[in-house]
From TrEMBL:
Entry protein name: Urease accessory protein UreG
Highest taxon of source: Bacteria
GO cellular component entries: cytoplasm
InterPro entries named among the record's database cross-references: CobW/HypB/UreG_nucleotide-bd (IPR003495), P-loop_NTPase (IPR027417), UreG (IPR004400)
Source organism (scientific name): Actinomyces johnsonii F0510
Family assignment from sequence similarity: Belongs to the SIMIBI class G3E GTPase family. UreG subfamily.
Length: 226
């Protein structure tokens, strides 16, 4: 099965536009378990859109800034457009209960680059219930990977249910771990309702076009004819 869930990308521009409540750049949270592909997704998005829009990223880790280093090493975002935070404790606290560190990081990025249009806020790897505070981000993406097993969508954690886009990554691993993508798609349809989701293999950029389409249409609102 290939990553062809584009029919699940629904058109809700009016609702999405009303959600962009923060002054300055649009804020997009990217959450999901450790190793699901959050950092890689941000890297792929910024690579695809770097000539179109001004972007930056804030990464959250418990005791390191490893994800920030990975993003910087790719060379797509300049180092001064990346802020790595060491949150300590439970990583979900910094994106939900006490977002002050992330707010300060975003303010720092805006001061450095007044032209910023989008800031990605990557959560530290966390459980399926982690969600972003609406006071911190305008939109959120939740990423899981196929290697976690086909039953993961069935667990319907709050991160998967409430995110604006749900991404099931690493589809190439399905035959190696015995995961049925058709089952994962069916389960995702049940708990997502009319909210969009898609399959990706970010290693080869398969399915990335669905993510970019969602960003352009529902978030940036630059592709409302499609």
């Amino acid at each position: 099965m290939t990553a062809t869930a584009s029919r699940t990308l629904v058109d809700r521009p009016g609702e999405q536009a009303a959600r962009s409540q923060h002054p300055g750049p649009i804020r997009i949270g990217v959450g999901g378990p450790v190793g699901a592909g959050k950092t890689q997704l941000i890297e792929r998005i910024t690579r695809a859109l770097s000539r179109e829009i001004s972007m930056a990223a804030v990464t959250n880790d418990i005791y390191t800034i490893e994800d920030a280093k990975i993003l910087a090493a790719q060379g797509i975002l300049p180092v001064d457009r990346i802020v790595g935070l060491e949150t300590g404790g439970c990583p979900h606290t910094a994106i939900r209960e006490d977002t002050s560190m992330n707010e300060a990081a975003i303010a720092e990025l805006v001061e450095r680059h007044p032209d910023l249009e989008v800031v990605f806020v990557e959560s530290g790897g966390d459980n399926l219930s982690a969600t972003f505070s609406p006071e911190l981000v305008d939109f959120s993406i939740y990423v899981i990977d196929v290697a976690q097993g086909e039953k993961i969508p069935r667990k319907a954690g709050q991160g998967m249910i409430k995110s604006d886009l749900f991404v099931i990554n690493k589809t190439d691993l399905a035959p190696h771990v015995g995961a049925d993508l058709a089952v994962m798609e069916a389960d995702s349809k049940v708990f997502r309702g009319d909210r969009p989701f898609c399959f990706t293999n970010l290693k080869t950029d398969e399915g990335l076009d669905h993510v970019i389409k969602w960003l352009r249409h529902d978030v940036l609102m630059t592709d409302l004819e499609s």
